Amino acid sequence: MKRLLLLLAMSLYTQTAAQTPQPRLPAQVQPGQVQPIAPGTQAAPTLLRLALNPAIPEVRKVEVLSNGFISVAHALILVPAKKLTPAYVDTLAQQAVLRSYQAQPGLSEVDVSVYRAETYQGFGGPLPVLTLSVPRSRLAAFPTELQKDTFDRVWVNPNLEAKEVDVRPIQQRERRPVFVGTPAEQRRQQLQQSQALVRGGVRGGLIFRGDVKNKEVALTFDDVPHPLYFPLVLDALRREKAKATFFIIGRNAQAYPYFIKDLVKDGHELGNHTFHHVRLPKLSDAQIKQELKATNDLLTKLTGKPVRYFRPPGGEYSGRVLKIAAGLGLTTVFWTNDPGDFQNPGVETVESRFARHLRPGGIILLHDNAPDGLVALPDLLKVAREKGYAVDTVGNFAQ
Length: 399
Hints:
Keywords: Hydrolase, Metal-binding, Signal
CATH architecture of the largest domain: Alpha-Beta Barrel
Organism: Deinococcus xinjiangensis
Pfam families: Polysacc_deac_1
Protein name: NodB homology domain-containing protein
Oligomer: single chain
Structural class: alpha/beta
């Protein structure tokens, strides 16, 4: 019943999607990168918005989303540069949290992202000025802890003056691995892929498929974390007692570090998805290494855990990429089962694609910022278990 109500609620708020603002990214990073925002081939649902009382002019929207069990709100705050002081930003963030809870008392969590108004380009553009996450369990203590600078679910951007340039996003699904190389290199890689898909397991520092003799699959999520979707995905997995590998974009982890700590606390596995979600084959060796190493270093600093696995954005890779990844201790992971949740094809389509491609040793590709995947997740896990499959992380699956 909860799932039916959730589907109905999402359908009521579905409208034609607006044009996505073009992201802006740091000048020192080469073109060819994009922060994924789930544009899809179908219009994404327009989410329910809260009306704050009294309204706060700088709060542009407070969106609410549910996974069928809990609801989470995300407040977007845009502050003009002339008002951008720590005290003013803290006040706005605190007001947004308290009034969101007042507007919808049943919320389980309120997350906030504060941006400089003049440079805001949407999620994936310039980093926020401040982010914070306030679960209901922390609400009573939150104002005092924020004032005393002891609240641990807050991030303040240490570098607001970095110059950034416009880069057009590449709307490309991670549908299948794409090897970039000479004809001879491509033939060798195709042979390696074919053998790996038949035999399974780690081969030459790559995983295309797990052990085909075992009825188990690995559950993976790309593009982590998103401030509205990620808490709902984590809650859904917790309820299902399921573990997954999350391939994390470094700059997202930088802006929302508390979510990365939540992930590890719940027993999930870290994966590297580059720092800026950049297509790697066209970059220099130094740039490829920096994209991977910066993400490894950040995730290890946040969690104390080593990063063992890497997934190339867009599935694009080359011999150079594999060599550099291996040199950093990373095993490159691909997938066999892509339900296409990123394109908003409909929950039933996601579920049918998943079931159709479920095989021993499969690696499932989902995204934490895709509404259809969020709704379908409990049923995907149920189908896998009913068919006798164990669902686990890449690390446990690849042992």
